[in-house]
Amino acid sequence: MGDIKFGTDGWRGRIADDYTFANVRRCAQGFATYLLNQGKRGQVVVGYDRRFGGEYFAAAAAEVLAANGFQVLLTQEATPTPVISYAVVFHKAVGAVNITASHNPPTDNGFKVRDEHGGAIPPDGLLEIERCIPEVQGVKRIPLDDALAQGAVVYFDPAPAYLEQLARLIDVRPIQEAGLTILVDAMWGNGAGWFPRILGGGKTRIIEIHAERNPLFPEMIRPEPIPPNVDAGLARVTEVGADVAIFNDGDADRVGLGDEQGRFINQLQVYALLALYFLKIRGERGPIVKTLSTTSMLEKLGQIYGVPVYQTGVGFKYVAPKMLETNALIGGEESGGYAFRGHVPERDGILAGLYLLDLMVRTGKSPSQLIELLYAEVGPHYYDRVDKRFDESQRAATRQRILDARPSTIGGLTVTGLDTTDGFKFSLADGGWMLIRFSGTEPILRVYCETTQKDRVPAILEDGLRIAGLKD
Fold first, then answer.
1. pLDDT of amino acid 441
2. How many CB atoms lie within 10 A of CB 66?
3. Sheet holding 288-291, edge to edge
4. For a tag site, which of 190, 225, 272, 387 has the least CB within 10 Å?
5. Is 1 part of any domain?
6. What is the CATH number of the domain that holds 408?
7. DSSP code, position 10
8. 198-245 residue pLDDT tens
9. Residues 210 and 87 both lie in one domain
10. Residue 339 to residue 348: CA distance in whole angstroms
11. CATH for 210
12. Whole domain around residue 292: which residue ranges?
């Protein structure tokens, strides 16, 4: 049946190629064996997104978990990842399986696993799950109808508990009565309907687009809240007179932001704004956890407000354990996923969107004015990223090529250091950086940069591609 490898956030594959019912069942058996080997018994939450066949793949996973002695709480409809994660904590379950490929192209689906905290499982745990995945003949299974009749699988609605949790974390009444016009782009995913449900009934108007189920994701390459996928939504901002645009990815664990003029506010700016919101506006204190691919503005804010900043590898399999270890105020990564203290150590694009709206209301500032407020604290920072597909067979050669490059300058800036914790992060003389890193979920090589000199961005990215051998 072939090897199954868990990347940054679980396993993803191409539907009907390697992502089949047989392989989903194998993954479910591997996860069940992993939990049993750890001495964990009880309930497991299973959910899914709006991709092709999601509910049927979720049922297949539920059949296997039930046959291994777990009671499965199966969501009754497509459900945001953060809602699934909170259900784990609320029901004191031992873990979760989430059938989603998040922001991947429409051809793909995925298999995410979560621990008893509702967070990502650390790398050593993912490796152990891989080792536990059997061939197809080693899979236990009970038909769904039988499992339902026996109570081994139970359909449930995780929404009420999650909404009660949101009410403990944020008072949305000021947002409801602010009279804002908010454009919400659900990107055809699980976030559809949640902002109207949470913020409806007041003076604020919610205009939702791309809210139906359509696994082809029209008007975007993939449901990832970055350009060019957000372009259609941003174009609607000025058409409808919106004050802000909120984007959620396919499973609603990430957030994107557009300003009142239909301009994209990048993920690094959003993370810094969220940190500023907690530190300056709410007056809270606590550690910040960031991946090495996100903004150095966080270190500057940490110095200003006297809080430690911890850097990890890319992915919540690194961020979540560090948040739990340090009782972090906030944790996040460059992809637009952010987690918060008092909640679950998991990205939550719905809660992050509410916090950003609360920041607008509390300060009385538009999104573009919030960027001015941020830069008044830490100075301007400029970011961009280029993704390039590469031949997987050339991974080792590409890695060696980057190591051998030893550039003295990148984009005209002196290289001051190299961090190989996760990829190749070159520190630059202006305090910025350039990172070359292989995706953990797709055959894609990413080149990222952040700099305080806007005109340097294209040259830094070009040098990164050249170092990786992807540009002459």
1. 72
2. 29
3. 309-312, 288-291, 330-332, 338-340
4. 387
5. no
6. 3.30.310.50
7. B
8. 999 999 999 999 999 999 999 999 999 999 999 999 999 999 999 999
9. no
10. 6
11. 3.40.120.10
12. 170-378
- Residue 139 CA to its chain's centroid (Å): 30
The DSSP result for 237-305, as a single string, is HHHHT-SEEEEE-TTS--EEEE-TTSPEEPHHHHHHHHHHIIIIIS-----EEEETTS-THHHHHHHHH
- Lookup: tokens for 360: 């607008």
Residue with tokens 């990413």: 446
Rounded to whole angstroms, how far apart are CA atoms 342 and 322?
Answer: 15
280 lies in the same domain as 372: yes
Rounded (10°) angle between helices 123-132 and 21-37: 120
**Phi/psi at 265 (nearest 5 deg)?**
-105, 115
Average the pLDDT over 132-146 and give the result: 97
DSSP 349: H
The answer on pLDDT for 390 being more than 90 is no
* Residues 250-290: tens digit of each pLDDT: 999 999 999 999 999 999 999 999 999 999 999 999 999 99
Q: Determine the pLDDT at residue 472.
A: 61
Residue keyed to tokens 């990215």: 461
Would you list the DSSP string of 35-104? HHHTT--SEEEEEE-SSTTHHHHHHHHHHHHHHTTPEEEEESS---HHHHHHHHHHTT-SEEEEE--TTS
The answer to whether position 472 is within a domain reads no
Quick one: CA dihedral 283, 171, 185, 160, positive or negative? Answer: positive
How many structural domains are present in the chain?
3
Based on the fold, state whether residues 16 and 126 are members of the same structural domain: yes
Scan for tokens 């506010």, then name that residue. 265
Calpha distance 431→382 (Å, rounded): 12
Closest Cα partner for 257 from 323, 160, 353, 138?
A: 353
- pLDDT over threshold 80, residue 9: no
pLDDT in tens, 233-247: 999 999 999 999 999
pTM: 0.94
Residues 386 and 268 in one domain: no
Residues 130 and 174 in one domain: no
Least confident of 128-137, 161-170, 295-304, 435-444: 435-444
